[in-house]
Amino acid sequence: MLSNRVVHVSVQLFSNEKLALRMTEQMNLLHVMVISLHYMMHDISINSPLHEKDGIYIRVVDCGNSVMKDHCYWPLVSDLNNILSHRPVAIKFLEDNGLLQMWFHFLSMFQGMNLNQREMNQHIEFEPTTYYAAFSAELEASASPMWALVSHLRDASTAHLTKNLLWHCKQQLRKWLEFVKYGMHEHEALQVSFHLPLHRYFAVFLYQAVRNQGLSLSELLPSPNELKLIILHPLRVQVAFYEIISGLWVRNGLQIKGQAMTYIQCHFCNSMVDADLFLLQVGLMNTARSDIIASIFEKLVSCS
To answer: pTM above 0.85?
Structure first.
């Protein structure tokens, strides 16, 4: 109740553009918010089951924790979205390399959260409800600030800011891909997470840069080999989606179908499936056709 009341106070404070910019410049308001969010999520992070058999661990948020289930991060995220609606404050955010680095490190803790393991033998006894928290967190703490930033990057005058943000995004994606070493482990065919905020930031800002800011794909994309690795995770999500719709995940209960339906639901699709499909389209255009087709059939066969 206290945090909800504090939100109403901060909304009045941060809705004033001059005051928000003054606090950003003189009191490091953006840094305080991003660092606070980072440590809030770090404190509830756990070792992801992804590749745990190999002794490799990725830290992701625990979607069963009360911070996630009760949306305890929302007052802070709401304030961040509020101040990022002011163009001068958003420009300060995009110009600060340290802030961008912290932000993408924060997002990496959502990358691969709420990992699902396909049940092959018997129906699960208790269906988890953690996916509600996972989808809410990606929409509120990841996608909402993303769209707030995108709204200020409308023409060529801000192209350098988009280019810099994409560079930081690619750096964090590289680190994540090095950890997961995707495609080298057979048990991945039975796992899926619908949450890839790093991929979606890369896709959305890439789209904005090319469509509205005069930048070309050739100057923004990584090498073909790296691009191929990047698109394999969105590809895995597409394969899993159609597996679920076809009844191959039926032993995981109704909750897994709930995840698939939420993924394409109107309130989420613009930030999730649309970005994934765009990234796959870009990948198909800029990597060897034979490699991509082979990868698609490899994933389909290994999951059947």
So the answer is: yes
